[in-house]
Amino acid sequence: MLESAIKYRKAFEYLKATDHAYKYCPSVDEWGRAEKICEFLYPFYETTNLISGTSYPTSNLYFLQVYHIQCVLMGSLRSEDELLRSMGEKMMNKFKKYWKKYSVILAFGAILDPRLKISTLELMYEKIDVETAKGKVEHVKKKLYKLFEKYDKNSLPTVQAQGPSNQSSSMAHTPESASKKRLAIVGKLMKRNHQAEVSSGKNPLDTYLEEPLLSKDCFEDLDVLEWWKLYESRYPKLSIMARDLLSIPITTVASESAFSIGAHVINKYRSQMLPENVEAVICTRNWNKGFVDGEGEGEDVNPQGARRGGVSTSGSDSNFVDLEVDN
Q1: Are 283 and 253 in contact (CB under 8 A)?
Q2: In the beta sheet, which residues pair with residue 308?
Q3: 194 is in which domain, residue-wise?
């Protein structure tokens, strides 16, 4: 609403100059405040679109979004505008309660992104607080290694394959994106050290963290789950842990998405359907609408703004997954 109104600021001012009956034109100070509030709220709007859209992102993206929100909130505490400062203080109190509980598990998702890892985490923590950055990074690393130990002990023995290039070569005759081709090239280069690492018994997590980061410019649209699938032969147990962590949804599917299409399934002609059949029809329609190519395609929007067949973005609170690592 604010963004739309700001675009027509000159139109409101012109209306005030030409129509003497128009008495509600915002003042210069009010327009300035609207621009500040719009800029303040925009990161929250982006994050809401990410976690409530029809496609479900991997958890490596959540840490970056939450980190951005934290920076915005910290900036609002230093704002000269009393309203923004007051809003920021109230939001920061709630944010701290959430961040204290979920910061570690979301940090795991960022570390398991080959474009981020520990080094990016260190830069983020240093920007927030230089004094506590080192301690936070060590705390996250300790938890990560402890979790990997459990996967290493509980996982079944895995037969080592020839390397990540086998899977990529099988896709040589099918159309590939530029990102997949670059991954195949990187895989061939990394294969050289694979046998030496296996024979030396080096910790796979150490090996992964020591390897250089993938370029964000070259792998901007990287599918992280696809990357770990490609390198499953190189990191058999670590890839299992990575896929478990990266697939954690930050929200549950809103119940409105099922009720909005319920009337189209259970009508007077289908009132005797078995519950299993009703569930199958609803889920099939929901999946069909939820995984379309292109944002907004194949979606029906009702007057209240709730998406049909996808994830509703209105009328419900987002529930965060409660997952912690034992101390």
Answers
A1: no
A2: 300
A3: 165-246
In a domain, 13, yes or no: yes
Work out how many domains the chain is built from and give that number: 3
pTM of the model: 0.63
List Cβ<8 Å contacts ≥24 apart for 146-153: 146/325, 146/326, 147/108, 147/241, 147/325, 148/205, 148/237, 148/238, 148/241, 151/237, 151/238, 151/240, 151/241, 152/237
Angle CA(114)–CA(116)–CA(121) in degrees, nearest 5? 140
Q: Which amino acid is residue 241, in one-letter code?
A: M
Last residue of a domain, one of 246, 273, 295: 246
Whether 117 and 109 have beta carbons less than 8 Å apart is answered as: no
d(CA 243, CA 149): 16
> Rounded CA gap, 46 and 64, in Å?
12
Which tens digit of pLDDT belongs to each residue from 61-113? 888 888 999 999 999 999 988 989 999 999 999 998 888 877 898 899 999 99
